[in-house]
Amino acid sequence: MVDRYITITKADGTWVVRAAGAIIAESANALELAEGDYPHVIYFPREDIAMEFLDRTDRASHCPHKGDACYFSIVAKSGTLANVAWSYESPKAEVERIRDHVAFYTDRVTVEQL
């Protein structure tokens, strides 16, 4: 069922994440995840993220389709954006492609295609 409910494709072009006046991520290898009726989500490979700006938090959640998510805050001079990003470090087999990727809440940071 998951393969019909969730699709993961390579996101076209180059994508960036901007937060607190800085570019946090830039990738030509991002993935686009479509899940049911939810807005599509861009997942960035960790190697294309300035991970030194992200601090893992104690927050966690569970998705029956993807598995357990951990969360990150962005720490900047202007302040901390708490729990603004998430990752599935051990995703379910059906969505294995998002392992080692991070997604960001688009209402808290800017995620855009260049």
UniProtKB/TrEMBL annotation:
It comes from the Bacteria. InterPro entries: DUF427 (IPR007361), DUF427_sf (IPR038694). Transmembrane segments: none annotated. Residues 16-106 form the DUF427 domain. Pfam families: NTP_transf_9 (PF04248). PANTHER family: BLR5716 PROTEIN (PTHR34310:SF9), DUF427 DOMAIN PROTEIN (AFU_ORTHOLOGUE AFUA_3G02220) (PTHR34310). This is DUF427 domain-containing protein.
